[in-house]
Amino acid sequence: MWEREPVSESKPNTLQYRSDGPEDAPVLVMGPSLGTTWHMWDRQIPELSGSWRIVRFDLPGHGGAPAHPAASVSELADRLIATLDELGVQRFGYAGSAIGAAVGADLALRHPGRLASLALVAASARFGTADEFRQRGVVVRSNGMDPMARSAPERWFTPAYAAAQPAIVEWAVQMVRTTDPGCYIAACEALAAFDIRADLGRIGVPTLVLAGAEDRVTGPGAARTLVAGVPDARLAVVPGAAHLAPVEQPAAVTDLLVHHFSTAWHETLPAIPVPAAPAVAAAAQPPQAPYTLHVPVPMAAEPAPAPAPAPAGRPDPYEQGMKLRREVLGDARVDEETADADGFTGDFQELATRYAWGEVWARDGLDRRTRAVVALAALVAGGHLDEVAAHTRAALRAGLTPDEIREVLLQTSVYCGLPAAGAAFRAAAAVIREETTPQP
């Protein structure tokens, strides 16, 4: 049997879900990838629902779910917990893809007592760079969902599969195109801020990490980093699959999930036939460990800043300042500004981070959009064109549209002079073209 429950407009803190399988069976929750719906797991349901009660959910604004954007991966996880609480589900297994996998990792870190077992599909401890996801938000804000929809098949499927399955490619395009733009942007911001590299050792449930061999978004390299960091983790690499392996190679993914959740569940399960590990894996894995293996890959350490101690008696604003500086200006810009810091310039970079960002930008009196407007206007007045370019990019990622930035610069022409505003328009226009043009 199955049931479908859309989230009510009066309950924005829960998620739209569908339930399949016996009501008295162990619960397996399945989370979707960004831009998809619960239907990405359709091909797994017939076999899984024979032994488990499957609860699939939609992200906000996806699949017709109400458009209540979630600001972080943790907020999505909290909404899922609230949904499961309403269903009376306390203990469950979890399988998630991409942002759905991030939700699963967050659950393992913050709600370990609820999880019996975990599968992370197309996952990463950190998804690309924050700049990449914030630019996606800028593109959607400026052009709508169409650029993301048109580029989805290239990101999600191998070329051979896309050529052979035009109907599924069109399904994927329409799925993305009908996603609410505001919720998609919020999810991009959530992924931009997601980083659990330092926390992997605290994931204490049995974990399967599954990657498509040809996934160019979150491929085997990202999967090996997860396996190296999670104490009880196994790796499975699926040949002939890209980012949406459950869609492209449904039988292999189903077999892996059945085997994992039948053998690695932290509680007593009813008698469930345990399939052998899929034989297809022999082509991709060493013969002594078919399909799954442990990969001892050390995590790359990133140098951490070593700021001078703050004055006694007050919290040090440096860490918050660096976080805000990166969120507003982007990692690439901050890395460029701080890369050459030495004994002569290091104190200045520390001062800028601690006081401009940690003290002023971190204040509650203005929201980030308003601060972006103030910064742009002040920089035009000062003729700081390099900074105008950087803060135009920051303004776009803070939520200003190109039209709003144009109005800000038009206003400066009255008070700062036509030459200053004209130069600022040229600097801003170049950034807007770069940021709002979808990447190939």
Using brief descriptors, characterize the structure shown.
alpha/beta; 9-stranded mixed β-sheet; 440 residues
Describe it:
The chain is 49% helix and 10% strand. The protein contains 18 helices and nine strands. It has helices at 45-48, 73-87, 99-110, 130-143, 146-156, 159-164, 166-177, 181-193, 220-229, 245-248, 250-263, 318-329, 331-339, 346-361, 368-382, 385-397, 402-416, 418-436; strands at residues 2-5, 17-20, 27-31, 53-57, 92-97, 115-121, 207-212, 233-238, 292-293. It has a nine-stranded mixed β-sheet, sandwiched between helices. Helix 5 (146-156) crosses helix 7 (166-177) and helix 12 crosses helix 14. The radius of gyration is 24 Å and the shape is globular. The model is unreliable at 279-305 (pLDDT under 50).
Helix-strand blueprint:
Blueprint: E1 2-5, E2 17-20, E3 27-31, H1 45-48, E4 53-57, H2 73-87, E5 92-97, H3 99-110, E6 115-121, H4 130-143, H5 146-156, H6 159-164, H7 166-177, H8 181-193, E7 207-212, H9 220-229, E8 233-238, H10 245-248, H11 250-263, E9 292-293, H12 318-329, H13 331-339, H14 346-361, H15 368-382, H16 385-397, H17 402-416, H18 418-436
Parallel strand pairs: 3-4, 3-5, 5-6, 6-7, 7-8
Antiparallel strand pairs: 1-2, 2-4, 8-9
Helix pairs in contact: 2-3, 4-8, 5-7, 12-13, 12-14, 15-16, 15-17, 16-18, 17-18
The percent range for strand residues is: 5-15%
Provide the spatial order of strands within the biggest beta sheet. 1-2-4-3-5-6-7-8-9
Number of helices: 18
pLDDT < 50 runs, ≥5 residues: 279-305
Structural class: alpha/beta
Compute the number of strand runs.
9
Q: Tell me the series of helices and strands, N- to C-terminal.
A: EEEHEHEHEHHHHHEHEHHEHHHHHHH
- What global shape is seen? globular
